[in-house]
Amino acid sequence: MPADLYRSPVPEQLWERIRNEFHLPSLEQVHERLSAIHEDPQPAMRQLARVFMDGGTYCPGYQFEPDLTLNPVVAALFERAMELRIPHNYFALWMMVPSPPLQGTRPVDLRRSGQASLLQATLEQTFMDSAA
Fold first, then answer.
1. Counting Cβ atoms within 10 Å, is residue 43 exposed (0-12), middle (13-18) or buried (19+)?
2. Distance CA 23, CA 13 (A)
3. Of 31, 98, 99, 116, which has the highest C-beta tally within 10 A?
């Protein structure tokens, strides 16, 4: 993995990979869907990981469970990413890139495995190393 991966522009192919594998609905589409199932969708909206591209705002589908609740592992990771001031798009990139500390597994593939603390440590390590 290039040392400057998280300092470079996010590759355009990433958005297509997320779209094909997990869906990449617009923020407006997510708001509409959440409004249909929640009386007040704002608490969930505030927790959403978002990506900014082509002048729009999108929400990677890997953060949702089938019932449109937020995956608690992804939500906790994203909250920590915001505390670390990691840009949204780099968080999305990190979720999709095979990680050496995870034996080459992508963080997104572990979001349902109960390994939240390992993922958080890997997130912190990755961005502390890239800041150095």
1. exposed
2. 14
3. 99
Calpha distance 35→106 (Å, rounded):
31
Rounded to the nearest 10°, the torsion over CA 41, 91, 85, 115 is: 80
How far from chain centre, in Å, is Cα 132? 23
* Model pTM score: 0.89
DSSP 38-89: -S--HHHHHT---EEETTEEE--GGGB-TTSPBPHHHHHHHHHHHHTT--HH
pLDDT digit string, tens, across residues 34-76: 999 889 999 999 999 999 999 999 999 999 999 888 999 999 9
Question: What does the alpha-carbon distance between residue 48 and residue 115 come to, in Å, rounded to a whole number?
Answer: 20
